[in-house]
Amino acid sequence: MSNQSPCLSCGACCASFRVSFYWGELQSAGGLVPDNLTEQINPHRACMKGTNQKEPRCVALLGTVGEQVRCTVYENRPSPCREFSCNGEVAEYNEGCDKARARFGLPPLTPPVINPAFDDEPPISA
């Protein structure tokens, strides 16, 4: 099994959803996200350029969806990107991942990708 993330050959989520977040994540407000790659949605929310349209594609996505991609601001990406995991990455089902992949004709990730960093941790109980 390869330890390479399937996200590096996918990128469907970056070209399927609006990436909106609290304006405090912008570099001008002390956050990480470069202002020049965003647009204002309202006084409290911003989004990554390219994602607030009918056919979204984040301005920070480089490459071809379904082949080879990378995020050009990975270390400075906003919280929705940090919180979105590929289906099964953290032993949880992510319907959004499957929906984004299907939009580009990509199959669901099966079996689920389990991040080796989480293999030794006990399951979270309610």
Question: Mind explaining what this structure looks like?
Answer:
With 126 residues, this protein is an alpha+beta fold. The chain has two helices and five strands, in the order E-E-E-E-E-H-H. The strands form two sheets. It has a three-stranded antiparallel β-sheet, with no helix packed on it. The chain has a two-stranded antiparallel sheet with strand order 4-5.
- Tell the overall outline: globular
Structural class: alpha+beta
Helix content: 10-25%
Q: Which strand order do you get reading across the main beta sheet?
A: 1-3-2
**Biggest sheet architecture:** 3 strands, antiparallel
Q: Helix and strand string, N-terminal first?
A: EEEEEHH
Average pLDDT taken over every residue: 86
The N- to C-terminal Cα distance equals 31 Å
| Uncertain regions spanning at least 5 consecutive residues | 121-126
